[in-house]
Amino acid sequence: MRRLLPHPLLTPILTVVWLLLNNSIAPGQIVLGLILGWAIPLLSIRFWPDKVYVYKPLTLMRYIIVVLIDIVVANFIVARRILGNPDRLKPAFAKLPLDLTSDLAISLLANSITLTPGTLSARLSSDRKYLLIHALNETDPDALIVTIKQRYERLLKEIFEKC
Amino acid sequence: MNLLLISLTPFIGAIFTAAISRLGRLHSAWAAVVVTSLALLLLLPLVPDVFAGQVLIQRFSWIPMAGLDVAFRLDGFALLFALLILGIGLLIVIYARYYLSERDDMGRFYAYLLLFMGSMLGIALSENIIQLLIFWEFTSLSSFLLISYWQHRQESRNGARMALAVTGAGGLALLGGFLLLGEIVGSYDLSVILASGDIIRADPLYRPMLILVLLGAFTKSAQFPFHFWLPNAMAAPTPVSAYLHSATMVKAGVFLLARLFPALSGTPEWFWLVSMTGLTTLLLAAYIALFKHDLKGLLAYSTISHLGLITLLFGIGTPLAAVAGVFHMINHAIFKASLFMAAGIIDHETGTRDMRRLSGLWMFMPYTASLAMVAAASMAGVPLFNGFLSKEMFFTETLLRTDEVWGWLLPAAATMAGIFAVAYSLRFVHNVFFNGMPVNLPKTPHEPPRWMKVPMEVLVALCLLVGIFPAITVEPILAVAAASVLQAPIPEHDLAIWHGFNPAVWMSMIALIGGALVYLNRRPLFRLHYQLISHLEFKKVYNYLLEQLFRFSVQVTKALNPNSLQRMVFVFIIFILVLGVSGFSGGEVLLTGHRELLPVDGVSLLVALVLMISAVGTVFLHKQRFVALILLGAVGLGISLIFIKFSAPDLALTQLSVEVVTIVLLLLALYFLPQHSPTESSKLRQYRDLMVALAVGGGVAVLAWAVLTRPYETIADYFLANSVTGGGGTNVVNVILVDFRGYDTLGEITVLALAGLGIYAMLDHLHLTGTSHDASGRFWDHDMHPVFMASFTRLLLPLALLVAIFILLRGHNLPGGGFIAGLITAVALIMQYLANGVTWTQSRLPANIHSIIGFGLLIAVSTGLASWLFDHPFLTSTFSHIHWPLVGEFELASAMAFDLGVYLVVVGATLLILINLGLVHSMTLLPKTKKHSRKWKH
Amino acid sequence: MLDYLLSFLILFGAIFTFIGSLGLVRLKDFYTRLHGPTKATTLGVGSILIASAIFFSTRGTGISLHEILITLFLLITAPVSAHLLAKAALHLELNSLAKIPTKKVQQEGLEQANQTEVAQQTTEKIEPLTSSDGSQDQELAQKQ
Amino acid sequence: MEALISIVLGTLTACGVYLILRFRTFPVVLGLTFLSYAANLFLLVMGRLTIGKPPVITEGVTDYADPLPQALVLTAIVIGFAMTAFVIMLSLKAYAALGNDHVDGKHKL
Amino acid sequence: MLDIVLPIAFGLVAVAVAMSFWRLLRGPSAPDRILALDTLNINTIALLVLLGIHLSSALFFEAALLIALMGFISTVAFCKYLLRGDIIE
Amino acid sequence: MMNHIVIAPVLLPLLIATLLLLIRQQNLSFQRILSIASVAAQVILAAMLLRAVSSEEILVYAVGNWAAPFGIILVADRLAAYMLMISALLAFCALIYAVRKSDRIGQHFHVLFQLQLLGLNGAFLTGDLFNLFVFFEILLLASYSLLLHGGGRLRTKAGLHFVVINLVGSTLFLFAVGILYGTLGTLNMADLAVKVAASPDENVFLVRVAGFLLFGVFALKAALLPIYTWLPAAYAHTTAAVAALFAIMTKVGAYCILRVYTLIFGEQAGPAANLIEGWLLPLALATLIVGMIGVIASTRLRQQAAYLVVASIGSLLIAFGLNTNAGIVAGLYYLPHSTFAAAAFFLLADIIASRRGKINDKFDLGPMIAHKRLLGVLFFSTAILIVGLPPLSGFIGKFLILQAALTHSMLPWIMSIILLTSLLGLIAVARSGSLLFYRAQSMEAVSHIPEASVTVKTGSVTVELMPVISLLLLCIALVIYAGPVTEFSLTIADQLLQPTIYIRAVLGDGGIT
Ligand code: NA
Ligand code: NA
């Protein structure tokens, strides 16, 4: 099975992307999309060393929506900061101890942090236990850490890691 | 009649002789005898015809349009010369067999000698003057080989090269002269030329032609001031000197004067140039000959002097003088050859040629001495010997112009030369054979072997026979020879020993007595000579000039080609500028055309400014290489935007992809290269470069403006009209690429493939060691492959591949195509390299990238070749719309297969380049290959 | 109505694109500047892309959703770029308004690996920045 | 617009020319890249400036940009890329072989 | 409405381009310039999409997509160079 | 019936190169056989083409079945066929030599070699100016790689210079093509010829500028003064087989000059007629002079050979620069001669150098060369050949050039320069020959020179010499068949000087206005 369909999740994603690319849901394109969605993972199987498991797909959806909303909010906050007096900014670094272990989960967390309000994941410690975060305007880094762990990390752990 | 065969015999014989020498060294001597005799035998049957007054001509067509035929001619003069060449040649061949020592390579010697003989024969027998010139130059070459026969001796090598240079130069001048002569006459045939004397003399080209021809003749015949090579050629083995430097080769010059006498003579130019050169040479050489201590040196200068005499005779230009000239050629050949043989015997038997050491040889070799004395007497012009006869004719001819103001000069000079001739002949005889005992000779001399003397005996006998019985011995051949030289009946003349007491006899007597007196008083003369004149050596001048030539050449070459790229580029750019500017001349220059212009919008202005400022910024910051690269990225982006703005989406896509790969490659290179450029150019230099750059940039701007502002007609409408119907695609650019001009594209992917393969080949075995820290000394970050990057780029790979396929498939109808798709694929893989490194990525790619390129090319070519099956030209495309249930209608075009080939080559080539660069560094991870460590100090 | 929606989206996007770049000009250190573009431009360009999708989908030639791909793509890549830039900046020890916590990390006596990393960095920092001196470079290279 | 493009072309060329006259391989490579940009752009605009009319045959549209220069430039870009890649690698090879990155292998400083 | 908004949008994005470019020139650090170039890329995408709407042409989509892809890769490559020197080790 | 033979010289090397690429893992001897067979087949193809064009007028092949001026047209006229033959023969000899050793010292030699031929053949056959650019790039990139084949310090440096200057040249080519297209709206050379002749006054200067810029490109390829300086180092430092093959490279530039400035900017080009008259001849004369001065100044045999190539380009372009029937004939005779002679000289230099230990081809006192006699004879013959002494083809070529110049107004200059440089060449070559062969010492005598005391090659020389002898035989054939060769050259010249024949063949009667 794995040899024939190495990434069951990737095939539909690629098919959808194909249809998006072509701006078409013609039957021909769907067939072609499915073929490509099947063939490309097969061809690039060697570039995927480990399999990705999604334990809770619904939580993933929730997570995505949360992040998207945060992005919009973040933009307004950042915009205000930029338009405001730059001298009043109080940027800070904060260290986030990680509970996540999988590469993908950590990467997604880092991504989300960067995409959302005034924060930026700057460095991952080489043992992958700490994430250094830069905040645009943060007086209380500890509170920030707590928020992130609550809002994102918990969800990601549920989605990607068997508890 | 086969003159070709006669001429070729020695050449074929030379090869035969060289080959046979493997069987034994003496075999080649006999072979040479056989060859020479064979040529003589072939010639003899023709003699009666010639004596009957016929001119035999044999002609083969060669290069008709250039007027070059292989054409041979046998008339009296040619016959005389041929007989001399072969006759004396035969004697020399025999003589040399005994002269050469055990160590000498006889095969080589005889091969060269026969080569020379053939060349000389060719000169004598040529009807076509260009053919004559070919043989002429060949005599120079074969004489080079003969003079340098003893290669280990420096004087041989130098003498040979000098002879080659001087006679070669003459040959080249002669080529020029003959070309002009041919141009004047309209033919290179001697027969025509000899009949066109009046036309030639009247032509405006006569003067340059004459000078060039005479240069040829004078250099070959060692006339002043080109005489100096001949004494230096004496480094050759003596048989060679006897043959080349007395009897034959040096005669080629005077032969030419005689041959062209009817065509060229009879003008003041001829008279003054030829006679004055001859006179100077005659006198000067006779004088120098007296003071030479080297036996062969004396003979060499004597030869020069006698050649001057012959030249003078032809310069005087009367028919009788010409007859005398021909006669003296014969006589000189005979006595001088025998004298050289004598010198050779002496050298051979005593081991030296220095007359200060040679004395009293009469006691050791009386027989040889007697022979030599006869020949010397002939040289001195003593009555009863052949030399006397022609010399007396000469004296007679010098007296023709005594009624003119300077008319007495000629006989006086002739007599003076005669005095010196007698003196040096006396010296030769007295100094060598008498005058006390020899000094410190390397060998004890004795008579030479029998057959070494025979050739000399024959020649000396001829001296006497001709001298005493001229009418029956030499008159017949002289008559036909002179007649063909003059191209007219020969004038009344009488070859007798005694003509009564005429002025010539008095001149001879003065010469004989004067010569004896000079010789007797030689000591003060020698002293005077060595104090005043001896340092005036032409050889030194020649060597000095040669040295200056080499020095000058080295300087010029160094100055012109200093191995500097900037110089090269600078010169090229200036050249282009000059060319470009000169294009503006010669016609109306209308810089601004009549086309309606487009307005500038703000965004375009902004993009243009960004682009230009980035470009200028790159130049300003080029020493900070990394920053320059970032700015280059902005330039690339700007270019892409311009492409988009001006309706070229395909180009924008290509540019964007190419830009990234280029930047990746530059970054890779920058890692190994220094991070900064040092300041090396002076302010002045920078200013100069700036000016040049502005000039070129301005030129480009002006040209662009001129073109952009004028309307034009183009073939483009055809492509727009036929793209869909003929090429089956709506993206005209792509249809042009894969169909209308698919052949270009085939070439283009070949270029890309070549780049991949070339880089692969170039980087083979190249090892570069990277740095452990950056330019400011900071160690590199430890995190080789940041996790986020790795995980996301992995996700991006299938997406990018999908996009690539999308671009590939739609290319025919919408912007895209094989190139862009290939580059996107390559970039997607580069992303993997960036995120995961070479080793990781490499192990996941197909092992043989070369085959990907190969397959790509194969697919592209096969697509093109498939059209042959339908009897269409290469790359003829076809397409059709296929209806497939469920999927619907879609198009299949052969061009798409072609595009697939393109795609594969692009992917393959790009990867091959990267992989190699990756390997260059990864090699260094292995400790054993860590040979070339990076040099730090710059 | 559609016209208003489009106009709003376009204007909104343009303003955010503008603000993102404004951050580049106004903010005082690299780390704060990094916040502007990565966020503002994603939303800015995102809005414009959505506007484009709506614009082309409502022109009767079929739906046009491929703009979503670009948005998606930017959402994936922008944080990676930002992360790498921040990492590079930290590596180069660019001046920061906020305290760079390397020393703090040291004081807290964190895990061994991290400590050595930091230690390494400080030793490097001590080395004077005289890379032109060849001998010293060679020494460094050997040490490495 | 024509004048603007002409100035852009002139600037790119001038930058390229200045850089190829430098002493080190790296700026020379940059200069060649600039020249290549200039040549490509020049070739493109020889089909005259046309805004918003890509040569993709569309129903109802009759006016297109000249497609031929575009095809030529595409070829030229790819060839230029191949050449640039080659010269970059060659500069590395020269650096390894000559011991420094001076274009003439000189050891100046 | 769109006719009024589009020029304003073009203007705003153009100023954004100018500001990003200013940072690109100004630096002062290499990451600043890389960031500026990255922003310039994203501004360009906005510009292209606006142009697409302005000209009612879908032909700019691929270019925008490619700028996103290529811009990302060049940013990554530049950063990797600063971090590691050898970008594909 | 299609005459696919016109495109065969392009497709064959490309297919063979592809095949070689695909069988890369196979053993070398198989690759060699394939490569040699390909070149042999190219000789045959060239012969067939030569035969075809001597009877028929001009063969035209429309690639992709698109008519001129829209598609790309291959044109096999007499000149093209002649050039194909010369390059195929040369390539055969060079390849045979390479097969001995130098194809092993680097990667992909045979692929690159075939692609080099592809580039050459394509350039000779194309009738499209932009396609000429493409094939220029192919042959250049192949030549870059071949030049660098094997590596080494000086070779790499020379290669860098060669590559950079040629890249500048390629850019220039694009600019020139651009101006022509922008002004005339076409790329087909026949069509360009028609349009140049008909261009309105106000456009003439643009056409002229483009024509001059193209001349700059071709002058660079041909190594004409003032941009010959890339050649000496490049040719002197590459492997012998490659240098031998490169003897044809400069001729590509000469070919293009001949083609473009007779067809597009020739007598019938109206306001741009005889565009480079007044440029070519003086530059060629100057090239001959500096080339020969370089020959004198050379300190190594291979360097001397390289400068002889420069000088020969001077002579060749003097002939073409005369811009007459006779001049072109002379040039066309001189062209194969100088190509073969230079190749033979390079190969021989390599053979001699390999027998002189570390002294190599330096003009220094060296050890006695093994097979001195045979090598000496060959050196002597090659030297005569290349310096232009009778009776070999060099002399005939020079003679024809001088003869053609007789009616030219610059005759005094031409004649004195050709004759004087011949003398310089003679002096220089005599000096080197004397030094290499005559001054050579026995091993004992040079034992004190450390460089000479290294073991030198003494093994059999016959196989190695086969290509050299073949090249010399080709030159001798040029002497013997000088009549037919010049006759054929005359028909080439006739064809070139009447561009309407070419134009009609490509564009049909419609092309003639
Ligand atoms: Na004596
Ligand atoms: Na077709």
Report a brief summary of the structure.
Chain B is an all-alpha fold.
Task: Please characterize this protein's 3D structure.
The complex is a heterohexamer of chains A (163), B (938), C (144), D (109), E (89) and F (513). Chain A has helices at 10-22, 27-43, 57-83, 103-115, 141-160, and strands spanning 92-97, 119-124, 130-135. With 163 residues, chain A is mainly alpha-helical. In chain A, strands 1-3-2 form a three-stranded antiparallel sheet, with helices on one face. Chain A is globular. Chain B is built from 38 helices and four strands. In chain B, the strands form two sheets. A two-stranded antiparallel ribbon of chain B has the order 1-2. A two-stranded antiparallel sheet of chain B has the order 3-4. The two termini of chain B are 80 Å apart. Residues 923-938 of chain B have low confidence and may be disordered. Chain C is mainly α and 144 residues long. Chain F has a domain at 276-480. Chain F is 71% helix and 2% strand. Chain F has 20 helices and two strands. The longest helix of chain F is centred in the N-terminal third of the chain and has 32 residues, at 153-184. Chains in contact: A-B, A-C, B-C, B-D, B-E, B-F, C-E, D-E, D-F. Chains B and F meet through strand 1, helix 6, helix 7, helix 26 and helix 27 of B and helix 1, helix 4, helix 5, helix 6 and helix 8 of F. One sodium ion (NA) binds next to helix 20 of chain B.
Shape of chain A: globular
> What percent of residues of chain A are in strands?
5-15%
- Top CATH class of chain D: Mainly Alpha
Strand proportion of chain D, as a percent range, falls in: under 5%
Shape of chain D: elongated
**CATH hierarchy class name of the largest domain in chain A:** Alpha Beta
How is the main sheet of chain A built? 3 strands, antiparallel
Helix and strand topology:
The complex is a heterohexamer of chains A (163), B (938), C (144), D (109), E (89) and F (513).
Chain A: H1 10-22, H2 27-43, H3 57-83, E1 92-97, H4 103-115, E2 119-124, E3 130-135, H5 141-160
Antiparallel strand pairs in A: 1-3, 2-3
Chain D: H1 2-20, H2 25-45, H3 67-98
Chain F: H1 8-22, H2 28-55, E1 59-62, E2 73-76, H3 78-98, H4 109-125, H5 129-148, H6 153-184, H7 189-197, H8 201-222, H9 230-237, H10 240-246, H11 249-263, H12 280-297, H13 301-321, H14 325-353, H15 372-387, H16 393-405, H17 411-438, H18 462-480, H19 482-497, H20 499-507
Antiparallel strand pairs in F: 1-2
The structure holds sodium ion (2 copies).
List keywords for this structure.
heterohexamer, A: 163 residues, mainly alpha, Alpha-Beta Plaits, three-stranded antiparallel sheet, 5 helices, 11% strand, C: mainly alpha, 2 domains, 76% helix
